[in-house]
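thought: fold this chain, then report.
action: predict
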Amino acid sequence: MAQNVRSVVLLIALGTIAWLIAGIIAIAMSADSKVIWTCVMGAVLGVTGIRYTIRRARRSGI
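observation:
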């Protein structure tokens, strides 16, 4: 993988980790279910973004 793809994957991974931490805090504080589901969907979209970025880099030959 090229250096720029690694940095993009790292950036998306950091965002995903931030959503997971926010979700854990929301659960610990007994937040509204909308907040918890927002954190869950943010983490799911982050994982999807990581998979998409790696797959696209492999297909384009980077």
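thought: worth noting. The mean pLDDT is 93.
final: tokens above.
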